[in-house]
Amino acid sequence: MGQRFIHILNVPNLDLLGVREPEIYGRDTLADVKAACLRELDGTGVGLIFRQTNAEHEMVGWLHEARIGAFGIVINPAAFSYAGYSVLDALKMCDCPIIEVHLSNIHRREEEWRSRSIMTRSVTAMISGMGVDGYALAVRHMLRIDRRNAA
Ligand code: CA2
């Protein structure tokens, strides 16, 4: 088998992480998130594909790429969490573990609609409210589960 990859996928507006609303989302940027995830993967042989887009069709294409044989998917669906049904359908086609990550605790936000992610019922696990640490924790968990399954 060739090298396997964890796909970390970020969607609308997350390119502005660290720039807008730091009181909610923190001051770390996506580059910091990527660096933290690479540290987790160091020496494991698992590769990283780290992406962000503001376009729904691009995200669907990336999920098709990850559909078969990926090590795992970590996705922050951001606003697609609430109406991105094409992203949801594409996620359901993937055969690997999927962890949904939200920087903020979506159940604690002022706007009640933020707590109603349509993705959550179709993913393996969800991390919400741990800020940028959520991504690296998701990677660590996936590595641990894989090691457990191999033992
Ligand atoms: O907490 C999260 O990670 C969210 O997925 C972020 C989304 C929001 O729609 C979800 O309810 C919760 C995107 C928020 C707007 O985008 C920004 C990104 C970076 C900085 C400021 C805003």
Task: Describe what this molecule looks like in 3D.
This protein has one domain (5-150): Dehydroquinase, class II (Rossmann fold). It has six helices and five strands. The two termini are 18 Å apart. It has a five-stranded parallel β-sheet, sandwiched between helices. The protein has 151 residues and is α/β, with parallel strands linked by helices. Bound molecules: ligand CA2.
Order of helices and strands: EHHEHEHHEEH
- CATH superfamily grouping: Dehydroquinase, class II
> How many domains make up the 3D coordinates?
1
What is the second-level CATH architecture?
3-Layer(aba) Sandwich
Bound molecules: ligand CA2
Number of strands: 5
CATH class: Alpha Beta
What is the makeup of the main sheet?
Answer: 5 strands, parallel
**Radius of gyration (Å):** 15 Å
Rounded to the nearest angstrom, the distance between the terminal CA atoms is 18 Å
Task: Trace the largest sheet across and list its strands.
Answer: 2-1-3-4-5
Low-confidence stretches: none
Fraction of residues in β-strands? 15-25%
Looking at CATH, which topology would you report?
Rossmann fold
Helix-strand makeup class: alpha/beta
Q: Helix segment count?
A: 6
